[in-house]
Design goal:
CATH architecture of the largest domain: Up-down Bundle
Helix content: 40-55%
Number of helices: 17
Radius of gyration: 27 Å
Number of strands: 9
Largest sheet: 3 strands, antiparallel
Shape: globular
Strand order of the largest sheet: 1-2-3
Order of helices and strands: EEEHEHEHEEHHEEHHHHHHHHHHHH
Amino acid sequence: MSIQPIVTDDGSPSFRNNNYDEAYHSKSGAIEESFKKYALPLKIWEKENPVIYDVCFGIGYNAAAAIDVFLEKGKGELKIYCYENDPEILKKALEINPEFKNYELIKNVVDCNQQFVAEFALHDYPITDADILTRGPKAWDDMLNTINICKFNIGSGATGIVTHSFYEALNHAYHRNLYGNSVTEFAHVKRLFSDAWLRIMGMKLFGLRATDYMRVASETDKRYMLFNPIMKMKVAIQGEKVHEHLFDIIAAKGFEKDMYFEQAVSELVGFPKLEGTRHVNMALIAKLIPSYMFMPGQFEEVGRIKDNRNDDFMFHQGKTSGYAKTKFHDYNPAYNSLAHLPNVKVFLEQIQAYKEFLMVSGTDIAKQMMNFDFLLGVGELFTMVAYGHLIIESAKMEGVSDAVMNQMFDLFVRDFSAYAVELYGKPVNTDVQLEKILKMIKRPVPMIEEFEKVLKDEVYSLVDVYKQNP
């Protein structure tokens, strides 16, 4: 072993690196050294709200000693930024339990790459008024409003990950020859690459448009309250679907350690699962079905927001009550603007069937949706309506062609039908509900020449355009 445990003269544990023939702390005492040479000479009690940059964090003794000193003598808030380039010594830090006050490092809860997410216990840790930002109902509102913003990044992260994976899979498949043909010429591979690219396009277009509505938010315009949960949940799950498509193409190559794909698959799978993402966010989204589907409001048209305005409202979102009364603009104008496309027309028929399902369900659907399994089925279909709505708006701003949009809604018609089949199987449905659900199950209009053109011009034209640095 290159790193071996030792015990210093004050009884505190440390380590010795045999590769460099050096110990991490002096023989006289590891904890003693951390206090006498680092924590006390800093005199952090002389500054209010001190900030420490702990470079070469090691096993954390210096930072821990600084915390102990600050808790005893300090003023305000202490921030410590820790940097360590050696993942081996970070793992070793978990093997010891030094006697510092107030907290105990238990373990690193993840074990991939160089990430370190600590589980720790606090023992009689002092909390002062200076540590408390808000109290009472406002504290609850601030907590939820913070999540409203932060959850957005989950979808953005998923979009970036699958974009890297897409290029890697495409480059690999195009240059791989089987039975005298490039892998990209097989019919099933064509469909998988087309669906993967169209899903990524949808993820990007939705994310751009959802950003617009978040940046124009105000006390009278809280449409982001629907679009942000969709960004977190729907877009992240779409990312998983993209990886499913690509994994069927890249196959064993995707397991090799020098591929980005291997890391991407293992990390992305957690995105939709964070904090029970699908379940929690679908419960929020479902509350907005009546308002969005049947009671649209009037809003000024919002363009693409690219300026450097200060997004003040995001930090003053106010009370979280009245969520279900949030108003949205009518989705029909966006869909009707592309109603000349065969597959958008089919999708509109599915939306109408969904509305009929909601109407025949009446107020009883509220009781049915107490069954969370049923709620998820109803919510998935609703999410498709809002998802397509913003994608159409965004596509017009970005100049996306009719051919691409028609192929995208070929995919969405299939998705909508799949969700409808899933809902059909729920045991709490009534006979009249089942009749309406069957009307949602549609076949997209096949347009083979258009499919081949989009595949050639938009998807396969990306071969070797991007390669990630090793």
